Amino acid sequence: MPSQLIYGNDGIYRSPRPPLSLPQDPKFSMIPYLFRNLSSISHLPALVDAETGQTSTFSVLRTQVLNFSKALLDLSVSKNDVVLIISPNSLLFPVAFFAVVAIGAIATTANPLYTAAEISKQVKDSDPKLIITIPPLYDKIKHLNLPCIMLTNSTTPSNSNWYNSSDFINKTSLNVLLSDSDFPPVHQDDPAAILYSSGTTGASKGVVLSHKNFIATSMMVTSDQDQAYGEAKNVFLCFLPMFHISGLVAVLFAQLQRGNKVVVMPRYEMEKMLRTIEKYKVSHFFAAPPVIVALAKNQEVVKKYDVSSLREIGSGAAPLGKDVLEECAKVFPQTALYQGYGLTETCGAVSLENAAASSQHSGSTGMLDPGVEARIMDLERMQPLPPLQKGEIWVRGPNVMLGYFKNEKATKETIDDEGWLHTGDLGYFDNEGRIHVVDRLKELIKYKGFQVAPAELEELLLTHPEIKDAAVIGLSDVDAGEVPIAFVVRSSYSSLTEVETKDFIAKQVAPYKRLRKVIFSEEIPKSAAGKILRRELRHRFLSKL
Questions:
Q1: Which of 81, 223, 257, 267 has the CB geometry, 3.0–4.6 Å to 129, for a possible disulfide?
Q2: pLDDT score of 39
Q3: Which CATH architecture best describes the domain 55-186?
Q4: Where are the bilayer-spanning segments (predicted)?
Q5: What span, in angstroms and rounded, lies between the C-alpha atoms of 370 and 282?
Q6: Closest Cα partner for 92 from 120, 70, 61, 71?
Q7: What is the separation of C-alpha 37 from the centre of its chain, rounded to a whole number of angstroms?
């Protein structure tokens, strides 16, 4: 059994990692924390554009943030006003985000691939005072009749409703004139961002995250770095979207506050990513499971590039099977591969495997991050469960959101009176204190009273050498209640049949878990975070009936 440190008599699992030491001054909010060590790192590169090589040092980044903040104040953006940022990854995205939170305003981010209708829905809910975007996206937001700041380093045609960031962002003389007294007082408990959950299992909700949430999470996800590398600086690649919790917090804010260099790509493309790793000697990157699967299945492509600088690759957003991790490890023999677990509601952090430990590729998402507590709850008896028993994962800690924006009912349904956030995820702890995330509770397939986890079948399907990607959903059935069916993307050379795919799974699982139907598809629809959009798959299937 695990020690009392990990699992107590009170049914609470605790982190074996060293405890967090959060800043005690309530006024020590995100931006003071971000630049707290500026005197020793001001000359070091903070952000690098992967395509152009353009570089911003920490000193330049701070100057740009202050200048942008001053422009926001001049445009009458006040504390607690909401500002929408809708843009792909760039060197200016973090400048805009940090400038918004520096003055106590609240940043809400949106996927630049959203349609005008989807953007309008988020605008209606969050009620922003101003939009920060790029010129190519203007047609999607012009109907909203809100003032805009265009993220651009060059002159663009004038427009009565927008301002160019280039007009103020590089005016270094402003830096001399600005001081903390120019900005509204900002506290750790103040809201910093409203990030919308992916909505894969229901309506998307605005998650309100505080300055303390960001600071705590940044400390959590870099705690192992501090042990493994001391004061040494690392080079992180960021192709995860900055509008998403993983790119924004785990990569951008967390790594910059530690003094690491962040190399920015606008989006993921395998060979561009590999070229960037080679060119900038990237040491770390985080990715969603589809990227890990693609790397594992394209070993010949990886071998064309020098990726010897890579020390660690982290995966999150959805469960990743042990077999896939081991296959990918063969492609990167000098690199530690590990998984983490988090939600937008926990500012992206709950647990993380220790890349320096010997127990990699366990199929778990590692041990709890420092400062995080957890319970595994039996929902029928409402009792906490010991190791090796599955239940709903509940978590508590300084990274847990303030609540859902303008949705008190949903907040009370998710965070109880003791501060436990009910994740909606099914999982368990093993005897070593590692957490295993099985699936979303709402996505479990109920076959004649048995529970079938789609993620388990997806993991098995991805071990087939002729399957590039796969997703499993449950569909209503008169006799069984629900039956599992699979959507499969075959390799280009494959002639794999439905019968062969069913047999491949049937040999490895109990009868109630067998696939009842296989549908071959060109691609699996996924969110920006890499989560399978099961509702869309279900709609595709039903529309063909």
A1: 81
A2: 93
A3: 3-Layer(aba) Sandwich (3.40)
A4: 91-114, 235-256
A5: 26
A6: 61
A7: 26
**CATH superfamily, domain at 13-22+216-236+259-440:** ANL, N-terminal domain (3.40.50.12780)
Cα distances (Å, whole numbers) of residue 417 to 411, 412, 421:
11, 8, 10
Rounded Cα gap, residues 45 and 42, in angstroms: 8
Other CB atoms within a 10 A radius of the CB of residue 374 amount to: 26
Determine the residue type at 48: V
Query: What is the arithmetic mean of pLDDT over 72-94?
Result: 95
Residues carrying CATH 3.40.50.980, the chain? 55-186
Q: How far, in Å, CA of 429 to CA of 133, rounded?
A: 43
* Helix (H) or strand (E) run with residue 64 in it: helix 58-74
Distance from first CA to last CA of the chain, Å, rounded? 51
SS3 at position 225? helix
Measured distance CA(414)–CA(161) in Å, rounded: 40
Q: What is the pTM of this model?
A: 0.83
Structure tokens at 470: 């796969």
Q: Which helix (H) or strand (E) holds 488?
A: strand 481-490
CB 152 within 8 A of CB 164: yes
Q: What is the mean pLDDT of residues 466-481?
A: 86
Q: Quick one: which of 121, 86, 112 has its CA closest to 100?
A: 86
Identify the CA nearest to 396 among candidates 14, 17, 21.
Answer: 14
Round to whole Å and give the CA distance between 489 and 468: 5
Residue type, 510: A
Question: Which one, of 148, 150, 111, 157, lies nearest residue 128 by Cα?
Answer: 148
Distance separating alpha carbons of residues 445 and 538, to the nearest angstrom: 13
pLDDT per position as a tens digit, 128-176: 999 999 999 999 999 999 999 999 876 555 566 777 777 777 664 444 4
Bridging pattern class, strands 162-164 and 191-196: unpaired
Question: Any idea what the Cα angle at residue 102 is, between residues 97 and 107, rounded to 5°?
Answer: 40
* 3-state helix, strand and coil shares in percent for the chain, rounded to the nearest 5: 35, 25, 45
Per the CB < 8 A criterion, the answer to whether 301 and 291 are in contact is no
Instruction: Convert the pLDDT of each residue in 394-448 to its tens digit.
Output: 999 999 999 999 999 999 999 999 999 999 888 999 998 999 988 777 787 878 7
Backbone angles phi, psi at 156, to 5 degrees: -120, 160
For residues 40-60, one letter each, b for 16 or more C-beta atoms within 10 angstroms of the residue's C-beta and e for the rest, the string is ebeeebbbbbbeeeeebebbb
Please, where in the chain does CATH 3.40.50.12780 lie?
13-22+216-236+259-440
Structure tokens at 299: 């070993």
Which position has the token pair 């509770």?
Answer: 441
Residue 414 to residue 405: CA distance in whole angstroms: 13
**Taking the CB of residue 180, how many other CB atoms lie within 10 A of it?**
11
Per residue in 189-204, pLDDT (tens digit) is: 999 999 987 543 456 7
Give the Å distances, CA to CA, from 141 to 113, 118, 152, 539.
12, 10, 17, 28
Tokens of 172: 């270094």
Degrees, nearest 5: CA angle 416-421-426: 120
Beta strand 206-210 pairing with 191-196: antiparallel
